[in-house]
Design brief:
Rossmann fold; alpha/beta; five-stranded parallel beta sheet; about 35% helix
């Protein structure tokens, strides 16, 4: 690829532009009306207005992103993170338009973008799971029975998205209906998907992540462990990683 479009803004886009320049790749920026003087717009080789300030009318317009990519002659689209980066439909649309989506294949996004789908995938490999409902749940009475079976406290959790949104801890059965309605409402507002499920609440867990990186040629590496247990409101505050470098 000799030119890519960065479907993001701010620091995220700036980092991608810096890396692309080191690799000799030309960059195309997009910007909303509010970001016309932003640093990523000035740093890119080309920049195009995509729409008004609200992200739903600009950075989330996948059709416009692809239109600009074709107009500019970009061969690939880098979504950064947030916005369209976890949108399987956008990833597929990029591929269908003969462009390269610089990120996971849309089938992988479909699986990992939904916590319920991810849990089903994990079950196939006999990975131990936190006790909870088998799928999305909407019936409050059924939810109470599940919660009683696994034992309070429980966690109501949105299937889509992240960032701690659509999550509610329930200590007692009489609180479950109200907290479930709140979780569903928040999930719909944040992700456009009100699917929720129930899991046993683990109060003081160790949150350890391992990042795996693969390319389309069968090369796979893992980037060691990250300790992510320091959180506030179900969101990570600090990630600590140990990287070993052997020249």
């Amino acid at each position: 690829m000799d030119k890519i479009l960065i479907a993001n803004r701010g620091e995220i886009a700036v980092r991608v532009i810096k890396s692309a320049k080191k690799m000799g790749i030309k960059t195309v920026a997009i910007y909303s009306e509010a970001d016309k003087e932003a640093l990523h717009v000035k740093m890119a080789d080309e920049a195009y207005l995509i729409g008004p300030a609200p992200s739903a009318q600009s950075y989330l317009r996948g059709d416009k992103v692809i239109e600009i990519a074709k107009l500019s002659g970009a061969k690939g689209i880098h979504p950064g993170y947030g916005f369209l980066s976890e949108n399987a439909n956008f990833s597929k649309l990029v591929e269908d338009n003969g462009l390269i989506f610089i990120g996971p294949h849309y089938k992988s996004i479909e699986t990992m973008g939904s916590k319920l789908a991810a849990k089903e995938a994990a079950k196939q490999f006999d990975i131990p799971m936190v006790p909870g409902s088998d799928g999305a749940i909407t019936d409050v009475k059924a939810a109470i029975e599940i919660a009683k079976n696994i034992g309070f406290p429980v966690l109501i959790k949105a299937s889509a998205g992240g960032g701690g949104k659509g999550m509610r801890v329930v200590q007692f059965a009489e609180e479950l209906e109200e907290q479930m309605n709140r979780a569903v409402s928040e999930a719909i507002s944040a992700f456009g998907d009100g699917s929720v499920f129930i899991e046993k609440y683990v109060g003081s867990p160790k949150h350890i992540e391992v990042q795996v990186l693969s390319d389309s040629y069968g090369n796979t590496i893992y980037l060691f462990e990250r300790e992510c247990s320091v959180q506030r409101r179900h969101q990570k505050v600090l990630e600590e990683a140990l990287f070993l470098f052997n020249p």
